[in-house]
Design brief:
Elements: H1 2-29, H2 42-59, H3 67-81, H4 86-114, H5 119-124, H6 128-152, H7 162-186, H8 192-272, H9 276-291, H10 302-317, E1 321-325, H11 335-354, E2 361-369, E3 372-380, H12 405-415, E4 419-425, E5 428-436
Parallel strand pairs: 1-2
Antiparallel strand pairs: 2-3, 3-5, 4-5
Helix pairs in contact: 1-2, 1-4, 1-6, 2-3, 3-4, 4-6, 4-7, 4-8, 7-8, 8-9, 8-10, 10-11, 11-12
């Protein structure tokens, strides 16, 4: 009966650790399709781990040499279901498994020192010492995982570089080798003072790894912020130049629109005089100028006029049909923010339509309800964008220069206490932005 209870306890502990490990990697990496822990296969991974650990524990007392098997199971789960770089997946899978092993060794050595027993006795003897060590071990595992999970969640979405992941992986595996030798030494009949040194060393290894992870991620976050700020600064310089150039082009367009009146006078005169052929030829010679202005808008904001008219002209040159509805005034929203928001929306929509062979259409609208502005950009798509790229990460080769469009839009929405959302509907990709007038 006692043996059965102990076996049941071991299975429960193994399942607990399987859940902890699976949930840990899920929480850090996230499901690539935004599914819940259960739907992403986390429970399946936990059951596989439980079964594997239980089988291995049945044949041997200390499963440290089988860490690679456990890491492999978790790594396969992360590859199939979870998001992130391969090196990050490998690190998180390794970290989640290895720390359980190191903490188990630390607790076993501590209680062996406390009760003046051998480590093998703590692992094998079905007594109070083993029960206490098991409970304490699981509590420490839970605490360490919550602590490190909090550190990982401070990491920004730019992620660590491969060099940084290799650095912390090196520290982790060097620690494993050292901890492994210390654990093997501790299974021998060693004096109390030697065991105390082993406990201190293993505890130091745990702290070193926690501190290393924190420092590398913190430094990477700061470096990423510096790079991002530099890119945003470059974006602002570009936008300032872009506004000036767009304004100049818009002035040209306004002058050309003024010339239309004279064109109508010429055509009317030719028709009245009976020169139908000359009137037809005159229209054909100038038809390109007429089509340029099909979607020209004229609000009370020169920046909005410049950006929309310029982007519309680019879209029409690419044979993209453009439909625009807008309000006249934009009180409370800075010209720079309007330029950034509208130009990024158009750039993304045009880029998407360029990939299509036909049915290229952009529908852009700006509406206002009291002090709230509603921006909507719709563009046709040939297949689902979000299914393969839910985070809208850039697909361009130079990811450092590109890939800030969605973040800029989101930041502008937050700046004006608004909201930013994107979804797909009836063959369209739709971006919806709400800005509240300050």
């Amino acid at each position: 009966m006692i043996d059965t209870l102990w076996q049941l306890l071991e299975v429960v502990v193994n399942f607990y650790q399987g859940i902890i490990i699976s949930d840990y990697v899920y929480s850090i990496l996230g499901d690539r399709k935004k599914r819940s822990f259960f739907k992403s296969g986390g429970i399946v991974c936990a059951f596989i781990l439980t079964f594997t650990i239980s089988i291995i524990n049945y044949f041997i007392n200390f499963e440290g040499v089988y860490l690679c098997v456990y890491i492999g199971i978790v790594f396969v789960y992360s590859l199939i279901c979870l998001d992130g770089k391969i090196l990050k997946k490998f690190f998180v899978s390794s970290f989640s498994v290895i720390f359980i092993s190191i903490i188990t060794s630390l607790v076993a050595n501590f209680f062996a020192l406390l009760f003046n027993k051998s480590v093998n006795n703590i692992f094998l003897h079905q007594g109070l010492e083993r029960f206490i060590s098991i409970v304490v071990c699981q509590l420490i595992i839970l605490y360490v995982y919550k602590l490190t999970l909090g550190i990982f969640k401070k990491e920004n979405k730019n992620d660590l570089s491969n060099r940084e992941w290799i650095l912390i992986l090196s520290v982790l595996f060097i620690s494993v080798v050292i901890a492994g030798f210390l654990t093997l030494t501790s299974t021998q009949n060693v004096p109390s003072n030697t065991r105390l040194v082993i406990v201190i060393c293993i505890a130091g290894i745990v702290l070193i790894n926690i501190v290393t992870v924190y420092l590398v991620i913190d430094l990477s976050k700061k470096n990423s912020v510096i790079k991002e700020n530099e890119m945003l600064r470059m974006q602002q310089v570009y936008q300032s130049n872009y506004i000036e150039n767009a304004k100049a082009q818009y002035e040209i367009i306004r002058k050309m629109r003024h010339d239309i009146k004279n064109n109508y006078i010429v055509i009317g005169s030719l028709i009245k005089s009976g020169n139908i052929d000359k009137a037809t030829k005159y229209i054909n010679d100038n038809i390109h100028n007429f089509t340029l202005f099909a979607n020209v808008i004229n609000t009370n904001n020169d920046v909005v006029n410049a950006v929309i008219n310029y982007k519309s002209a680019i879209a029409q040159e690419l044979e993209i049909e453009v439909s625009i509805i807008t309000v006249l005034d934009f009180d409370g929203i800075s010209d720079i923010d309007l330029c950034s928001l509208i130009s990024n929306l158009f750039d993304n929509a045009i880029e998407a339509c360029k990939k299509m062979n036909s049915n290229k259409h952009i529908d852009f609208s700006i509406k206002k309800d009291e002090s709230v502005y509603y921006f909507s950009m719709k563009n046709t798509i040939g297949h689902s964008v979000l299914e393969g790229n839910p985070e809208l990460n850039t697909t361009k080769k130079d990811k450092i220069i590109h890939g800030f469009g969605t973040k800029i839009i989101n930041d502008i929405a937050k700046k004006y206490n608004g909201a930013f959302d994107y979804y797909e509907e009836n063959g369209y990709f739709i971006c919806s932005i709400i800005l509240k007038n300050k």
